[in-house]
Design goal:
123 residues, two-stranded antiparallel ribbon, 5 helices, 71% helix
């Protein structure tokens, strides 16, 4: 079932959102100071391509630097990526088949807003 959901996700939402995260990562790599944001963005692009069967957990070693980085991330990229997840989620919830995918998009909004200090793990 996860495989089928991932394939449907990849076609309808995954590619577009992964491209958005990749674009944010490229922009972040332009400046040396924002390279950690670029790394987080590419990590999230990988997660957004194939999300079912994986989850995001808070890292125990994340500290104040992650919190400050998340605030900066929110201002630069997070808000726009979260809006992308909201729009995709609403469009996917229009159809019955797309409802689980839309819900998955809504669950990714907090991760899009604050990705630093989190880790992607298999379920």
């Amino acid at each position: 079932m996860r495989f089928l959901l991932n394939v449907i996700w990849l076609v309808f939402s995954g590619i577009w959102m992964a491209l958005s995260y990749a674009l944010a990562g490229i922009v972040a790599f332009v400046l040396v100071v924002t390279i950690p944001f670029g790394i987080a963005s590419f990590r999230m692009a990988n997660y957004v391509l194939w999300p079912f069967g994986r989850t995001v957990v808070r890292r125990s070693d994340a500290g104040v630097a992650s919190a400050l980085g998340n605030v900066l991330w929110l201002l630069l990229f997070g808000l726009w990526l979260a809006i992308g997840h909201v729009v995709c989620g609403i469009l996917l919830c229009i159809t019955v088949i797309g409802v689980p995918l839309g819900v998955a998009n809504f669950k990714m909004i907090p991760i899009a807003l604050f990705p630093l200090g989190r880790e992607i793990v298999r379920i």
